[in-house]
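During the second half of the funding period, the structural biology subgroup turned its attention to how the target accommodates small molecules. The most pressing case was flavin-adenine dinucleotide, which had performed well in the primary screen but for which no bound structure existed. We therefore specified the complex as follows and requested a full 3D prediction, including the ligand pose.
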Amino acid sequence: MQRLIGRRRFLTRAGAVAALGALDACGLAPGSRRANTRTTLQLSPLRASVDRITRITVCTRPFRARGPRLDVEKVGAKTVVHNYGHGGSGWSLSWGSGAIATANAMATGERDIAVIGCGALGLTTALLLQRAGARVTIYAKDLPPNVRSSLATGLYTPDSRICMEEHTTPAFKRTWEQMARQSFQTYQSFLGLPGTPVEFIDSYFVSDDPANRPRRSEPDGRPGFANLERELIGDLIPQGVDFEPGSHPLGRRFLQRNTQLMFNLPAYTRTLLADFSANGGKIEIAEFHAPDQFARLKEKTLVNATGYGARALFDDQSIIPVRGQLTRMIPQADVSYGLFYKSVSFVPRRDGLVFQVVGDNDYYGYNDETAVPDRAEAERAVNTIASLFAAT
Ligand SMILES: Cc1cc2nc3c(=O)[nH]c(=O)nc-3n(C[C@H](O)[C@H](O)[C@H](O)COP(=O)(O)OP(=O)(O)OC[C@H]3O[C@@H](n4cnc5c(N)ncnc54)[C@H](O)[C@@H]3O)c2cc1C
């Protein structure tokens, strides 16, 4: 059985140009990857060792088989605009999804709007509502950095566990593409800002075997997760470049370089919070145990951006927890490249290096609500990446 690769972004980028032929700046035939033939790749050595671990965090992705909930519902006298259930794509789709929620909320005619939740979806929707002319108060049990969104990897991964393949109707695909493109464009406006909230990085898929190119795993007869990037937004993805042994410092391995959009979440979140506050936004700490408790709010229109919290608040059992664990390490300023090797991902976040076992397919962590950090898994993640440097 072929070896399986867990992270769709590498295989997406590997095949994106093949699918669409959209990027051909060097005159290569669409579908080809470029082989590096001239230069030797320079990579600052990564100081990866378990004694440098600073923190292990665990978080659950709010996955819904049918994708995010974006409909509008009446709860007593209140209009509730839903914006939750974005699986492993919440940051990546936030601006586009927030735009849909904003249009739904503004269509009520109200200009004083409550946003319940201060994670990726709540913050971006609150800002978009302000830009549309609304006065916004965020009500939330927890604020960043104590929200689930603060425990994300921080990459643009807009189809990561966004829904099951069987639910990718034409209407869903249109909505998803609109969300993914709008978010991608909005993220460009955060490039180059003080604190580097958002940046592009190079990432290397590393393999011991030249035949072992990024491949999608098959989840053993279970329903497959949607895989939409290559089909719908392949033109956003730069072409990969291959590096053979001898042309890079990672021993006799085969590398494929791709480009990724990375979010340095603390700096990015602070930028969003500062913008919200500068626009006159207010924040109140509040916890709701049932939707009828919204009656105590002065606003008549509410956006529900409670993420995984909606499972309890709205008794939405369609939300499935998908556990993910990040191992954080002391930042290293000279390392600005990512790696993926043996189902472990490494991301060079400015606020702390991020290591993560991602498993062989998207069922890794599925329906697992365990919040206890697994030290053995953390060390395995670090040691797998460290082995790339030990062998050189
Ligand atoms: C390990 C891991 C890695 C990830 N990596 C990425 C990535 O690289 N890129 C990406 O795009 N996505 C990633 N994700 C997914 C992303 O983190 C989620 O999709 C996103 O955080 C969801 O944001 P949210 O705003 O809906 O929810 P949350 O961040 O959970 O925010 C919910 C808000 O609602 C509040 N709230 C909840 N319930 C109540 C209540 N009853 N009363 C009052 N307030 C309430 C909370 O306090 C909080 O303020 C990752 C997820 C995990 C677990």
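Two results from this model are relevant to the next phase. The first strand starts at residue 34 and ends at 35. DSSP finds eight helices and 15 strands in the chain.
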